Amino acid sequence: MTEINAFDLLREEMESDETHLRVNAIHRLKIVATLMGSEQIKTVLLPYIDHLIKKEEDEVLFAIAEEIECLATLLPGNQTVLLPNLEQLASSEETVVREMAVKSLISIANLLGEYEIINFYVPLILRLANNDTNFTCRVSAVNLMCPIYPRAGQHKDKIRAKFIELCSEETPMVRRAVASKIGELATVIEKEYVLTDLIQSVKQLISDEQDMVRVLGLNSLKLVAKVLRKDENKQHTLPIIIAATEDKSWRVRLALSKIFAEIAEAFGEEADNVSLIQIFTNLLRDAENDVRTASIQSLTKFIKILSAEKLVIIVPHLQYLAKDSVPQVRAGVTEVIQIMCTLLPKDVTNLKLLPHIIDLFEDENKEVRQGVTRAACKFVEVIGQDSLKNLIPHFKRSIEDPKWRVRIEAYDAIAHLSKVFHNPDLFQSTLEPMFMNYLKDRIAVVRENGVEKLAMLIQTYRDWSNSKLFNKLLESISKENGYLYRLTGIQSLRVLALNVAPETAADKILPILIKHLNDTVPNIRFITVKILRELASKIDNASIQNDIKSNLSNLTNDNDKDVKYFAQETLQYLHSH
């Protein structure tokens, strides 16, 4: 294909009436440009793209804005010829076209040298920023200012002054763009200008008449706060967030709730300031459900930066939050309690948090009951095994909970505490009877979870696994139980066999498994075949392996095709190893 043919094909495709065909043609722009060469790109292709920009639909313009960036690598040292086209696209009324053009401009800027930035790129931004007839140009300019500021040289003052000027723009869309970017600008401009110019603009935006501008300004505040020192945050940031907690728009209060912990972190040791804590407790009491929900999530981060002394101020607020009408808030309280257990002194934890834990076990919402089960587990782990006696009835109730996710949390908690305390007497008298209920749970995923946790308990309590556990598993696979429960018992026997000495597995467990090769339920035969394949690798005894092969050969003509297939495959595997 010759150079001119590639361009003619593009032009022919762009004359189609079908928009999707024209879009596809633009997505092949780099191929066409590669065939044309750099000189033809500048003299033929770019003028044609300029012509398309003036007449095409938004879908095509978006594709052009996306693909024109690819031409930069084909024009080494001449990337500035692409800027006029992208400048037009950055002025588009369609948001997605404009945003893609800005993205491409930012990418191309990385390929430009200092001379091109100073003499071509920055003037483009300033032209967009000074365009009084089209507010979309000013929106694009705002989005381009932050990435280029460190390289703007003598134009830094102009960019900074224009950005500050746009903070007072009449058009809400421009103020929104400025509010969303002012935090990013604070991270790249010189610190002195943050204090003299930018902080005033932040205050102005956060008191804007449009609530969306105030929301975006607050989201930027967390970046500004990180730039300032602790004393500067106390002077400038604290008044802003105090005002935001009293904002008439719940969206603004919601935005503050989400970022409060990040802002507080910027205060350093001043985060312990009682004023900050008071501000946050006001958000926790907010009349809007979403604000309280976001606040309780932020509280899980905020309490980590407070001293234990100031953390005590938060504790009384858990009383009304634990009874909140919104389940997500109550679930958040369980997460807060779980974290507080590790931060507060043990006596305070026991006195102040235990009553909330006990009350939340009775909650009607399953997410809350899940969360409080985790919190109770952490509480017992922190306070010690003596605290377990107060919570045993509640763990038992969780194991019998109608919701299977709650039951899983309870089994996980019991297994974790069993490992942490490593106390055989406590385990066998209290924890083990609760845990072994997994064998008869009515939901398969709960039984499977119990099987997974069993390995950890076997490794922790060797004596128990060789005697009492083995006997319990034998009971679970008796004919009186349903086949699904027997299946769980067999899978548990597998875990036991893989975690005990090979001799024990061969002497005690293997005969039981071989017996179940003749079970009347195909699924049990099928699972047993798969387990025997694993065990054969563990037991390095020719006589035992021959016994396994002999019993498996009886299943090569089994009535069930899956059992038959896996029996044949396992035999082949054993013969080859």
UniProtKB/TrEMBL annotation:
<dbReference type="GO" id="GO:0015631">
    <property type="term" value="F:tubulin binding"/>
</dbReference>
<dbReference type="InterPro" id="IPR011989">
    <property type="entry name" value="ARM-like"/>
</dbReference>
<keyword id="KW-0963">Cytoplasm</keyword>
<protein>
    <submittedName>
        <fullName>Serine/threonine-protein phosphatase 2A 65 kDa regulatory subunit A alpha</fullName>
    </submittedName>
</protein>
<dbReference type="GO" id="GO:0005634">
    <property type="term" value="C:nucleus"/>
</dbReference>
<keyword id="KW-0677">Repeat</keyword>
<dbReference type="InterPro" id="IPR051023">
    <property type="entry name" value="PP2A_Regulatory_Subunit_A"/>
</dbReference>
<feature type="repeat" description="HEAT">
    <location>
        <begin position="198"/>
        <end position="236"/>
    </location>
</feature>
<feature type="repeat" description="HEAT">
    <location>
        <begin position="276"/>
        <end position="311"/>
    </location>
</feature>
<dbReference type="GO" id="GO:0005829">
    <property type="term" value="C:cytosol"/>
</dbReference>
<feature type="repeat" description="HEAT">
    <location>
        <begin position="391"/>
        <end position="429"/>
    </location>
</feature>
<dbReference type="InterPro" id="IPR048491">
    <property type="entry name" value="XMAP215_CLASP_TOG"/>
</dbReference>
<dbReference type="InterPro" id="IPR054573">
    <property type="entry name" value="PP2A/SF3B1-like_HEAT"/>
</dbReference>
<dbReference type="GO" id="GO:0019888">
    <property type="term" value="F:protein phosphatase regulator activity"/>
</dbReference>
<feature type="repeat" description="HEAT">
    <location>
        <begin position="82"/>
        <end position="120"/>
    </location>
</feature>
<feature type="domain" description="XMAP215/Dis1/CLASP TOG">
    <location>
        <begin position="401"/>
        <end position="569"/>
    </location>
</feature>
<feature type="repeat" description="HEAT">
    <location>
        <begin position="159"/>
        <end position="197"/>
    </location>
</feature>
<feature type="repeat" description="HEAT">
    <location>
        <begin position="353"/>
        <end position="391"/>
    </location>
</feature>
<feature type="domain" description="Phosphatase PP2A regulatory subunit A/Splicing factor 3B subunit 1-like HEAT repeat">
    <location>
        <begin position="275"/>
        <end position="344"/>
    </location>
</feature>
<dbReference type="InterPro" id="IPR016024">
    <property type="entry name" value="ARM-type_fold"/>
</dbReference>
<feature type="repeat" description="HEAT">
    <location>
        <begin position="314"/>
        <end position="350"/>
    </location>
</feature>
<feature type="repeat" description="HEAT">
    <location>
        <begin position="237"/>
        <end position="271"/>
    </location>
</feature>
<dbReference type="Pfam" id="PF22646">
    <property type="entry name" value="PPP2R1A-like_HEAT"/>
</dbReference>
<feature type="repeat" description="HEAT">
    <location>
        <begin position="509"/>
        <end position="547"/>
    </location>
</feature>
<dbReference type="InterPro" id="IPR021133">
    <property type="entry name" value="HEAT_type_2"/>
</dbReference>
<dbReference type="Pfam" id="PF21041">
    <property type="entry name" value="XMAP215_CLASP_TOG"/>
</dbReference>
<dbReference type="GO" id="GO:0000159">
    <property type="term" value="C:protein phosphatase type 2A complex"/>
</dbReference>
<comment type="similarity">
    <text>Belongs to the phosphatase 2A regulatory subunit A family.</text>
</comment>
